[in-house]
Specification:
Elements lengths: L37 E3 L6 E5 L9 H12 L3
Antiparallel strand pairs: 1-2
């Protein structure tokens, strides 16, 4: 048993697990001005994480997750 004061998060718990990334982190695509133009989701028209130059049907993360659930259950 350890004698140190731990918050129960593990041996290397330094409190930065959920801390935001540094200034070099990529910006979120939704509503961020100045970023590259993002493709629209073909179902809900929300911005996706793909650039406009992406070929094929682009889906936002929410619609992609819902589509994966529908296709997994249609067996």
């Amino acid at each position: 048993m350890s004698t140190g004061t731990s918050t129960g998060g593990g041996a290397d718990d330094d409190g930065t697990y959920c801390a935001p990334a540094g200034p070099g982190a990529p910006a979120a695509p939704s509503g961020v001005a100045g970023g590259p133009p993002y493709a629209e989701c073909v179902l809900c028209r929300e911005p996706t994480e793909y650039p406009e130059s992406t070929r094929g049907a682009t889906l936002c993360p929410v619609c992609a997750w819902q589509e994966a659930g529908r296709s997994a259950c249609s067996g």
